[in-house]
Structure formats: C-alpha cells, structure tokens
Amino acid sequence: MTPFRSSPPGVILLLASAVVALALALYAYFTPLTGVTGTLGALAVSVACAVLAVMAFSLGVAGNHTSRITLCVLIVLLLLAICFAALLLHRGWICVAMGMGLVGLTINAVRSVRANRAAHA
Questions:
Q1: Mean pLDDT of all residues in the chain?
Q2: Are residues 39 and 77 in contact, defined by beta-carbon separation less than 8 angstroms?
Q3: In a domain, 2, yes or no
Q4: Within-domain flag for 1
Q5: How many CA atoms lie less than 13 Å away from 67 in the CB half-sphere?
Q6: Do residues 72 and 63 touch, judged by C-beta distance below 8 A?
C-alpha cells in the first residue's frame, strides 16, 4: 500500500487548512479597511500558506520514510511561523486554520505509525 493511500484524511485536512488560510490571508491583503491591506506581512503570510499547501501535497505523495519525517518537521515549523505572523497581523482565523492543519498532521503521523506496525507484524 502506498503512503498516499494509507493516510489521506490527515493530508487532506492539512491541505484544506492551508488553502483556507491562503484565502483568508489574500482577503486581508486585498480588501480595503482590514488594517493590513497591501502590507508585506499579509503578503508573506499568503506566500507561506501557498508553500504550506505545496508541502502538504508533497507529504501525500512522498514515499521515503526520511523525506516524510523531514517534511513533517518543516511543516510543523511553518505552521508555527504562520500562526505567529497571523497573530502579529491580528488575523486569528488564520491561526485557527493552522491549528486544524496541526490536527491533520497529527492524524497523518498516527496513521503512518499504525501502517508501519501492521506492515512489520
């Protein structure tokens, strides 16, 4: 069984949270009177959310155990960085989306461990 088929719920939740956060960050960047319209911080959060979406997709198709662990560590760091930047921009809903992404990453990790144990048994 391939890694993508063994853990889609967590990857899908992580990808969905990245897309929702990207939409919220772009809304804050482009909509007048949000307080962060046209700022570099809102643009940076938007780019970081797009990178997170690409990394979530890469996690779904990564086959090597080492690459999956590396991606998980980088994704956790990116989730924390986006949440911190969103707090500085007073965009709490982006932090909520990052929390859901962390839940998705946890689901992915738990399912991967269970799949590895079943394969070795």
A1: 89
A2: no
A3: no
A4: no
A5: 11
A6: no
State the total domains in the chain.
1
Q: What is the pLDDT of residues 54-92, one digit of tens each?
A: 999 999 888 888 999 999 999 999 999 999 999 999 999
pTM: 0.87
Do 115 and 6 form a contact (C-beta atoms < 8 A)? yes
**Residue showing tokens 């949440």:** 83
Rounded to the nearest 5 degrees, what angle is found at the Cα of 58, between the Cα atoms of 3 and 19? 115
Cβ atoms of 79 and 98 closer than 8 Å: yes
**Helix runs in the chain, H state only:** 3-6, 8-30, 40-61, 65-88, 92-120
Length of the chain, please?
A: 121
Helix axes 92-120, 65-88, angle to 10 degrees: 170
Whether residue 44 is contained in a domain is answered as yes
Q: Tokens 């990394």 map to which residue?
A: 55
**CA–CA separation, 48 and 39 (whole Å):** 14
- For residue 61, the enclosing domain spans 7-120
